[in-house]
Amino acid sequence: MPPRTRFSRERVLDAAIDLTRVQGIAAISARAVASQLGCSTAPVFTRFASMEALHEALLDRIIAAFVAAIEEAARSITDLDPLLAVGLGWVRFAADEPRLYEALFLTHHRYHFKWGPIRRMLAARMAEHPRYAALSDAERFALVGRVSVVVHGLGVEVWSGRLPDPSPARLSSLLTQLAGPLIDASIAQGWTTDIHSALP
């Protein structure tokens, strides 16, 4: 008798992310993931205590893919302001991985708190750039949040297909036009409070 196929946690997650890329995160169920794997639902519940646990692990995997995209942009695009380079990685993620972008930013879920550590990482990296060197950690953190509102708007335009030319050159130009003035005004006017935090 041939040995039974074993499904690791990573393999179950691979199946879930592949399914998300094709059908969206709303399609994720134990049966759908099992079907993708070609097995019963037992491996899904063996590797994950609940569907909630699977959904969180899936979101973590999507967040990791998103962070890899923005880090690659920040590393490779040296002729652009670092915050705008990150923005370009962000909107390219919307173009390259529309279903993952949808799952992360356009689906109601309880894991929005996971965005905070990403913002802190980006804010810390900005400290080395002359444009942001005089800002405090909290001000850089707040600026990432403010700019993310504009970048996300552009990301939605890309995700929805309403932007006819999502080429890197066009997106870079739009980010400079849309987010650049916001950055300048925020620094000049002292708009450095975090809009995502509860007001006192």
Written account of the structure:
This protein is mostly helical. The chain is built from nine helices and no strands. The longest helix has 26 residues, at 51-76.
Q: Helix and strand succession?
A: HHHHHHHHH
Quote the beta fraction.
under 5%
Strands, total number: 0
Main beta-sheet annotation:
none
Q: Structural class of the helix and strand makeup?
A: mainly alpha
Instruction: Write down the Rg.
Output: 19 Å
Number of domains: 2
Distance between the termini: 67 Å
Uncertain spans? none
User: What is the overall pLDDT average?
Assistant: 91
Percent in helix:
55-70%
Number of helices: 9
Coarse morphology: elongated
What can be said about this structure in brief?
The chain is mostly helical. It is 68% helix and 0% strand. It has helices at residues 9-23, 30-37, 42-47, 51-76, 82-96, 98-105, 115-126, 137-160, 168-189.
Question: Which helices and strands appear, and what pairs or packs with what?
Answer:
Layout: H1 9-23, H2 30-37, H3 42-47, H4 51-76, H5 82-96, H6 98-105, H7 115-126, H8 137-160, H9 168-189
Helix pairs in contact: 1-2, 1-6, 4-5, 4-6, 5-6, 5-8, 5-9, 7-8, 8-9
Which tags fit this structure?
single chain, 200 residues, mainly alpha, Arc Repressor Mutant, subunit A, 2 domains, 9 helices, 68% helix
